[in-house]
């Protein structure tokens, strides 16, 4: 283990933001899919469900937008500062990172389509269980890849 150096502080702070944003976004996604959606389906009439969904989405939309912005900006920083140097030593790092990047773009796209209001993606919003399940699976893949990348030296 190398000695601690003050120059590492920005990298640690950015990592904190990246990991906290990932925890909040993925935790919220899993809660929506496996707790909120089935509970609302079980307990509420169609009208009440539609009203609740409107309110939940209004709030969740802000978190999704903030989460995407933070994950993207801190992710690019991580890649420049941590990823590129590691990729020079272990070229398969970049292959795994490429899969992670594509999976992240997929997660961002599905999350944006579900919280958005564009008529183009209305068909996706009509099948929330399916698309939240796809997104939850991609999010788990992302976490697995990210924690593998961390251990590539
Ligand atoms: C939903 C989106 C994302 C999730 C859930 C996520 C999750 C994570 C997590 C949990 C880590 C920390 C791994 C650890 O320290 O054990 C990490 C690291 C990292 N993330 Fe992300 N991330 C996301 C998006 C992105 C994006 C969009 C980029 C790039 C543009 C990115 C680039 C990186 C890099 C380069 C690392 C450092 C890997 C290493 O230690 O070698 N991430 N990510």
Task: Describe the structure concisely for a colleague.
It contains 5 helices and no strands. It has helices at residues 9-43, 46-89, 92-115, 122-125, 128-150. Helix 1 runs antiparallel to helix 5 (128-150).
Task: Explain how this protein is built.
By secondary structure, the protein is mainly alpha-helical. It has one domain (6-150). Helices cover 85% and strands 0% of the residues. The chain contains five helices and no strands. The longest helix has 44 residues, at 46-89. 15% of the residues are buried. Bound molecules: protoporphyrin IX containing FE. Protoporphyrin IX containing FE (HEM) binds next to helix 1, helix 2, helix 3 and helix 5.
Distance between the termini: 12 Å
Overall tally of structural domains: 1
Name the structural class: mainly alpha
Series of H and E elements: HHHHH
Over the alpha carbons, how many angstroms does the gyration radius reach?
Answer: 18 Å
**What oligomeric state is this?**
single chain
Bound molecules: protoporphyrin IX containing FE
Mean pLDDT across residues:
95
* Biggest sheet character: none
Task: Assess the beta-strand content as a share of residues.
Answer: under 5%
Uncertain runs: none
The total strand number stands at 0
The helicity comes to over 70%
- Principal-axes shape call: elongated
Please report the number of helical segments.
5
Give the helices and strands, then pairings:
Elements (H helix, E strand, L loop, with lengths): L8 H35 L2 H44 L2 H24 L6 H4 L2 H23 L3
The site of protoporphyrin IX containing FE (HEM) has 24 residues, from helix 1, helix 2, helix 3 and helix 5.
């Amino acid at each position: 283990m190398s000695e601690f150096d003050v120059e590492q502080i920005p990298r640690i702070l950015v990592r904190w933001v990246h990991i906290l944003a990932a925890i909040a976004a993925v935790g919220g996604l899993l809660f929506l899919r496996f707790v909120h959606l089935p509970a609302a389906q079980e307990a509420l009439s169609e009208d009440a469900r539609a009203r609740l969904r409107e309110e939940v989405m209004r709030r969740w939309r802000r978190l999704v937008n903030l989460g995407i912005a933070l994950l993207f900006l801190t992710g690019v920083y991580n890649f420049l500062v941590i990823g590129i140097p590691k990729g020079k030593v272990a070229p398969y790092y970049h292959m795994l990172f490429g899969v992670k990047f594509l999976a992240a773009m997929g997660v961002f796209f599905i999350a944006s389509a579900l919280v958005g209001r564009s008529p183009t993606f209305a068909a996706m919003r009509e099948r929330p269980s399916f698309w939240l399940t796809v997104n939850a699976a991609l999010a788990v893949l992302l976490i697995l890849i990210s924690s593998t990348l961390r251990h590539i030296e």
